[in-house]
């Protein structure tokens, strides 16, 4: 997070960015493993998510990772989202715009709100984003109890509150909570929201004021909160090169120390789920040939997940493994993670001809992302069949690497003796291919704890 803030300020100081507000981190609790945006979050544990939120915010905003916050200046502005009880995109026709989360007061206090409380009290966040959904019938962006009483009152939040994009419009247009567009504008401003991502308040704010539904003080309060953050960022202090963070240059982007950190993050995020009979690590001196098989094996963009910037380097897992084994072949096996078109015969032939086989399977952004939830937890399409047939054809137990954000049910692989090792790599970023190769060949020890549970595909079928 410190690197994010530093690189952002460097780009801004160089005149390549117009602002310094980041709508991150996503600190919603990953309670339903089918949620498409779970990949953005730290997981299902509210306490761990809260600690992550505080450290992330402090890093982006230029504070020390712990201790007192002794400066009101901001290197960049972080915004904790989505407040609150948001973990659904589109589930069997129920969209996040219409969803009404029924949450007990205790569950709100114990599960959903603690990460945001930590974000504000321990991290000193300068922004909060209210979510699309309703909580117990009330849109979060129109909930005075959440925004003003809890965040600003109980937690002493001192920053701006934004809506998610077009979240004000849906209060009238989708949810029917507000009887008129002007009522939606009044509901959110009086609840404590300061800025609308979208044009709804711009379109209906004047008529809301003319109808007496909002006052000048409502508008002034929102402007004070918004301009205070811009002042803390130094946006009115002239040439940024002569201000507090003016010595940070654009050459901070992609510097070696930052790329080394990206590699370390990828390494530390890889988890070993199975390793029978010493299948891993591989030995460079003993592996004469390797077949890399699977839709996620030779596409660097699939390492990045969602909401990413342009990577400094681009190395696929197959390319990284070529650095360890000269005789390396790649067969995609499936058209993509959806795997509704396959070439199992070619994959089986490659597997039977190689000394070792590494399968790269899992999900991609067509399976899980913003606006897309999964209906089940199994590997998509014909992936399971591809894995089993390749394992049957291989000379030695194969290695299965999973690239995915949310959990997938690989019980079949756990129980198959022809699958020697299972590695979960998440979406490990620009250095992911290198990190995976290093783990497979014993140059880095994988972790043993996932940020989400391993569940069977029969989990909560409803």
From TrEMBL:
Keywords: Glycosidase, Hydrolase, Signal. Belongs to the glycosyl hydrolase 3 family. This is Glycoside hydrolase family 3 N-terminal domain-containing protein. The lineage of its organism: Eukaryota, Viridiplantae, Streptophyta, Embryophyta, Tracheophyta. One of its GO terms (molecular function) is alpha-L-arabinofuranosidase activity. GO terms for cellular component: plant-type cell wall. The keyword Signal applies. It comes from Aegilops tauschii subsp. strangulata. The keyword Signal applies. Residues 270-447 form the Glycoside hydrolase family 3 C-terminal domain. Residues 22-224 form the Glycoside hydrolase family 3 N-terminal domain. It holds the Pfam family Glyco_hydro_3_C. GO terms for biological process: arabinan catabolic process; xylan catabolic process.
